[in-house]
Amino acid sequence: MVAIPSYGGRVPATAARRISNLYGNGAKAVLVCVYGNRAYEDTLIELNDIVVKAGFKVIAAVAAVAEHSIMRQYATGRPDAEDKRVLKDYAEKIQKKLLNGTLTELHIPGNHPFKKEMGGKIVPQSGKNCNQCGLCAKQCPVRAIDVSNSKIVDKSKCISCMRCVSNCPQNAREINKIVLFAASAAMKKACRDRKQCELFI
Question: Whole-model pTM?
Answer without folding.
Answer: 0.88
